[in-house]
Design goal:
Layout lengths: L4 E2 L4 E6 L5 E7 L9 H11 L16 E3 L3 E2 L2 E2 L4 E6 L21 H8 L15 H15 L4 E9 L2 E2 L7 H4 L9 H16 L6 E8 L13 H10 L4 E6 L10 H4 L3 E4 L2 E4 L7 E2 L2 E2 L4 E7 L9 E4 L5 E4 L10 H27 L2
Antiparallel strand pairs: 1-2, 2-3, 3-7, 4-7, 5-6, 8-9, 8-10, 10-16, 11-16, 12-13, 14-15, 17-18
Helix pairs in contact: 1-3, 1-8, 3-8, 6-8
């Protein structure tokens, strides 16, 4: 199976299945002499960990990370960093009744068609369980980026219900189970998702990630555009079906003068009067905040019976039981932050290799 690695100079390769003994990854290309300990990674994993509210899966995984290699006496050595998380609360019996039935919205059919075999326990390799390793690797990427760059994510829409942007408060993101920057929206989402769960259904959402302190000059023309790599990174997150940068799809309804970010000099430096480009022009960062949004589809596992087929080619009906998020967009927030960190760390090292500094 190919496609398990991401990045060029700062590269991450992950392994493991949802209900296997463990999941893990190897981070290659990390510069030496960076302070790094398991606690530095665990703090980010704890933000993604399941079972923290009634709005996420109740699978109880502590997600305790172990550093297996690449760190000596509290510093990175430059060698590959091996990370491991043991799966402690897998309940494979939840899936035995549907092992021969393709779940709508899942990768069951496509994995079976491509490989002729699949791990039906929680989706195996296609499960969002693997995103824990993205978050772990993203923690190391943040070390590479340093304290000058800050990456923050927020949930800005659940189902049809959006936040009020006038109420945006980054501090509020850490105070509610939805990563919402709008306290009022969080209350409305709680009522909405309780109703969704009672109906045996699910909901999607939109996540927004903002990276501040990104220097101008990261990225490269044509095929190595930073926004192209960013789009790939975010689209690779399970359940993500759309990505936009800056004004995104709204740009189609703007005029040129409206969308263009006009320039002015301020204190001897070039500044922009708006940021519709989302911090990237020509695939290269402008020095403005990097802004990306990703659309997350409704959770595919639902209690509502749906028509499907079996691996033997018979029509069937399925209702997916077990422990599932009513809205996977909630836990996508720390994963999206991590993917942005991976892209920026990779491009920072690539920039230094070509241009110095």
């Amino acid at each position: 199976m190919s496609g398990n690695g991401f990045g060029t100079l700062f590269r991450v390769t992950s392994f493991g299945e949802s209900h296997g003994p463990a999941i893990g990854c190897v981070v290659d290309g990390c510069p030496p002499r960076l302070p790094l300990a398991e606690a530095d990674i665990q703090v980010w994993l704890d933000r993604r960990r399941p079972g923290q509210s009634r709005f996420t899966t109740q699978r109880r995984e502590p997600d305790r990370v172990q550093i297996l290699s690449g760190v000596f006496e509290g510093l990175s050595t430059g060698a590959p960093i091996g990370l491991l998380i043991v799966n402690e609360d897998a309940r494979s019996k939840d899936y035995s009744a549907i092992k021969d039935t393709f779940r709508p919205g899942h990768a069951d059919f496509t994995y079976q068609t491509k490989y002729g075999i699949r791990d039906y326990r929680g989706g195996g390799r296609s499960s969002a369980r693997e995103t824990a390793m993205r978050v772990a690797a993203g923690a190391i990427a943040r070390r590479v980026l340093g304290e000058g760059m800050r990456i923050r994510g927020a949930l800005v829409q659940v189902g049809p219900h959006r936040i009020e942007r006038a109420c945006w408060d980054w501090a509020e993101v850490e105070r509610n189970p939805f990563w919402s920057p709008d306290a009022g929206a969080a209350e409305r989402w709680a009522e909405f998702l309780d109703d969704v769960r009672k109906d045996g259904s699910s909901a999607g959402g939109i996540v927004e990630v903002v990276a501040d302190g990104v220097p101008a000059g990261l990225g490269a023309p044509v095929f190595d555009r930073l926004d192209a790599d960013l789009a790939k990174a975010l689209m690779s997150i399970p359940a993500v079906k759309g990505v936009e940068i800056g004004a995104g799809f709204a740009a189609a309804a703007m005029s040129g003068p409206e969308h263009n970010d006009a320039l002015r000099m301020q204190d001897g430096r070039v500044t922009f009067l708006s940021n519709n480009a989302g911090g990237v022009l020509g695939g290269i960062t402008t020095g403005q905040p990097l802004i990306a949004r990703l659309a997350v589809k409704p959770t595919s596992s639902v209690l509502t019976p749906q028509p499907t087929v079996t691996a033997q080619g018979a029509d069937a009906e399925i209702a997916t039981k077990g422990r599932h998020d009513p809205c996977v967009a909630i836990r996508a927030v720390p994963v999206a932050e991590a993917m942005v960190a991976l892209v920026l760390a990779d491009h920072l090292l690539r920039h230094r290799a070509q241009c110095g500094g």
